Amino acid sequence: MKPNKNLTIQFRAKTFNFASFFLPRKIKKDIENLYIFCRYLDDIGDQNNNNKKIALKKLNQIKKELVNKHTANSIITNFIHLQNKYDIKNKFAFHLIEGIKSDLKKDVEIEDEKELMFYCYSVAGTVGYMFCKIINVTDKKLMLRAIQLGIGMQRTNISRDVKEDLELNRIYLPKKKR
Questions:
Q1: Residues 131, 89: Cα–Cα separation, whole Å
Q2: pLDDT tens digits, residue range 163-172?
Q3: Could you tell me which residues come within 8 angstroms of residue 25 by beta carbon, excluding any fewer than 6 positions away?
Q4: What pTM was estimated for this model as a whole?
């Protein structure tokens, strides 16, 4: 099934697109389908900022479709194929969805470092884990490092996007220090 061009790696992630040239051809399409799925979810959370109820409804519907392993949406279908092919458990997609849903609160304010770490794990560490499943990483230490890399990258994004996040009533910098 052909994905929406606007969600593809070539269109949305130029650096990652370049890096993908070093991936084996047999998994490159699967990595792109993972990227498209994650980007699609993220866009639901970001583009529907004016109508958060619709975004929440869509994200909840996607969770149901993943549980039922049935959907009319080709992006979700492609992800379900990845889940089956690489034994990716629903809980990782659900953590990602819940992280995105947390961005849909009226005001997002992170209380402490623990909450920030869980948020970063939800929206980025889960992606590192799913990526590992596709590239056949089985070493638990390496999978943990991929999750930590995702968390670190999300923290970098938070640092970069402080102004834009404030405009969306999102404050990811913890209120409390340890």
A1: 13
A2: 999 988 899 9
A3: none
A4: 0.87
